[in-house]
Amino acid sequence: MKKTLFGAAALALTTSMSTAAFADFSLTVLHINDLHSRIESINKYDSTCDAESETEGKCFGGVARIQSKIDERRAALEGEGKNVLLLDAGDQFQGSLFYTTYKGDAAAEFMNGMGFDVMAVGNHEFDDGPAGLANFLGKVNFPVISGNIDVSGEPLLKGKVPGVIILEKGGQKVGIVSALAEDTGETSSPGAGVRFIQGEDYLKGAVEGLEAAGVNKIIAVTHMGLPRDMEIAAAVPGIDLIVGGHSHTLLSNIDEKAKGPYPVLVKNPEGKDVPIVQAYAYGKYLGEVEVTFDDAGNVTKVAGDPILLDNSVTPNEKVLARVAELGAPIEALKAQVVSSAAGMIDGSRDTCRAGECAMGNLVAEAMLARAREQGVQIVIQNGGGLRASIDEGEITMGEVLTVLPFQNTLATFQLKGADVVAALENGVSEVEEGAGRFPQVAGMKYSWTRKKPAGQGRILVVEVKEGDQWVPIDQEKVYTVATNNYMRSGGDGYKVFATNGMNAYDFGPGLETVVADYLAENTGYAPFTDGRIVEQ
User: Fold this and answer.
1) What total of structural domains would you count in the chain?
2) Full-model pTM
């Protein structure tokens, strides 16, 4: 990502981008992305907020707050005669007990109530295979789109996932196109019948088709991540706005935690600035951007910012009651206290996808403790499989399940030392994109660098614990390894596990059970990092 794109020029948001014409048309886009089943409100660690914190005003988001703010902004904007679109950039699925219990049904119900116009397919919409997405599509009353996926070979989805939608707002046609991360086959479970096309290739043709049909206002709602959105903006002419997701990026002009301005501006092949927006994740913000077009469809002005959904937003009472009703059957499980922590266990995305993190150490050590009697020496767990932090004090089963929501099982197998190094090489290959494959480990330590190209010797030193000693990994020795069943079958790019792994067993206990049991045995758990992963 080029820092120059985040410079002063990109901050001139309300300045005209060209001379406005007489027949200006303005469109306000409200948007969310990567809700990840945070149906209930969240705390500052992005995990489920408790009743006490809610009373104290320390919670954010939740579908009841999102509903309130959408209703408020839509009414205000339409009251001013403005045109409004509500978009979701994908990943409603996966991340809380609501998804574990209801799969996509709860998301469909609440999204229908909010009145979404269009949703992009996110990679996690495939977490329960084509059947999970097909069930969701059958329950929502708005289009769910993705253009660079070919579902013609999957009977459950064939004909159900359009790539382009044309909406009419204020007498004007607005084209919506979409693209999904091309590596979804590695990060989720779309199945053999779903094929992925390079995003730029699809979008160029889709935009040309819209323009040929007389549509000159085109929005791309994507689930590819900010770096890819910037590449697409630079490569594909004709896109007027990109509403993105996948990288969980906070863009803002007022929030000090922002990773860039809202919007980021990137010049397209014609030299026109393309605004890109994203609104973090987990329902903590509602994005709002107003784009003004001249009569030729050129963007003349863009302005906006995400709205923080904190305790100043009163939750919608009807939605709140429905959340409580759906939550009742799982409250007993969520409330079960399994242990306690002496400090906050950091499982944040930014930390666990870029280096050693306390949550990675906890989960990897728990897996090692569970499988040690089977001869396991090494554990590798993907940082993207860790979905939240846990705060100090009592630890409930609900918190553990929020950290580990994927229902993955402990998997064991044997692997040569050279293939272990190759696996680590894959793990650090996409750290610049914040990819979930980053390897958290136990029973081993390694150093790495991002100064070399991905896949070309980023892993510098690997050591394995033999008794009480750390020794260099033996390239030819066969080690017994533990991971999760998703990675063992090749997920997150760990193909070497699937192709070269020997004597694999993927059906161990659930990781949430492994970690809960380990915490129960280590009550008052003290989170730590110890230098097992070092970037040089």
Assistant:
1) 2
2) 0.78
